[in-house]
Write a structure and sequence with these properties.
313 residues, 12% strand, two-stranded antiparallel sheet, Rossmann fold, alpha/beta, five-stranded parallel β-sheet, 16 helices
Length: 313
């Protein structure tokens, strides 16, 4: 155990939950203790961390902050429908292989077996994100972000099982490539569909929820420091009120930050109905939601927000 602690210390892995929260805070990520615990355990146990939650709550940012704080390369696999092995793992450089075949034919190379072994060697291999992540140097293994896994299909999930459980990839022409040191793996999902249990069992799981008002205010202090204190308080309270409504897409933390910065650019020191109506497109991304909030509803919410903040003083 002592040797493990020394190895972790040399790699910059935090020694406690509090240290993990401090590590994330060094990258301006204000984490709840439950999230800091999940990150700490994933780092200490060498397990992939599977993060689910609504879009914009800060799932992807965790991987970015870990890479920055631990001084590791960040390798990002952005998932999408139809993602295949050639785009995610590896493919052969077919144009170079064809050139090599023609050169071999011109030189009179007779052995097809020798030619096959040559053109299917590593020098013709194009490494995609998953393979790149397994080839990190010990002590500097990268942070692998598999972002929005729910956008892919089930066959790709099945392929991931070997990567997540053994940290290895099998290439039929070469053999098995195994990581000298497993990467730090973060998977995210916006839960547009359910991820298969086989993937989840190989990971530690955490649901990333919208932040409390106090935590969102602390986030704005880091991410939108130029905003006036009154404006930040009102922005957070207004966004929290919006999330209690039945909107098609509630604003995430990213939208809160953007809105606060936009209002600061407009030299606002507090909210008023006119500026809310004219900037709702920064906060809400669907016209039906904007139409529902704009006008009298925005004015009503703002009045409640200001009344609530005044009574809290």
């Amino acid at each position: 155990m002592r040797a493990r602690r020394l190895t972790d210390a040399m790699a910059g892995i935090p020694a406690s939950i509090d240290d993990t929260a401090t590590l994330l805070a060094s990258g301006d990520y204000i984490a709840e203790r439950s999230l800091a615990t999940a990150v700490f355990l994933a780092l200490r146990m060498g397990r992939p961390l599977f993060l689910e939650g609504e879009a914009g709550v800060g799932k992807t940012e965790i991987a970015k902050v870990l890479a920055q704080a631990l001084d590791r390369p960040l390798i990002r696999l952005q998932c999408y429908e139809g993602l295949d092995i050639a785009s995610a793992v590896y493919e052969w450089n077919y144009s170079r292989q064809m050139i090599e075949i023609r050169l071999a034919e011109a030189a009179g190379v007779a052995s097809r077996d020798d030619l096959a072994r040559d053109i299917f060697s590593e020098r013709f291999l194009i490494r995609r994100p998953l393979l790149q992540a397994l080839e990190g140097a010990p002590g500097k293994a990268p942070v692998l972000l598999i972002d929005e896994l729910d956008r892919t299909d089930e066959p790709f999930e099945a392929y991931l099982l070997e990567v997540l459980s053994e940290f290895q990839i099998t290439i039929p022409e070469i053999g098995t490539i195994k990581a000298a040191e497993p990467p730090i793996v973060v998977l995210t999902s916006n839960r547009t569909r359910e991820i298969h249990d086989a993937v989840k069992r190989r990971c530690l799981y955490h649901w990333v929820d919208y932040p409390s008002a106090a935590r969102e205010r602390a986030i704005l202090a880091r991410k939108a420091p130029r905003a006036a204190a009154t404006l930040s308080d009102e922005v957070v309270a207004f966004v929290q009120a919006l999330r209690s409504m039945d909107l098609f897409k509630s604003p995430g933390v990213a939208e809160t930050i953007d809105w606060s910065n936009a209002l600061t650019e407009l030299d606002q020191i507090s909210l008023d109905p006119d500026v809310i109506d004219s900037t709702l497109g920064v906060l809400l991304k669907y016209q039906d939601d904007i139409a529902r909030v704009q006008g009298s509803e925005a004015a009503r919410l703002l009045a409640e927000v200001k009344s609530g903040l005044a009574s809290a003083v």
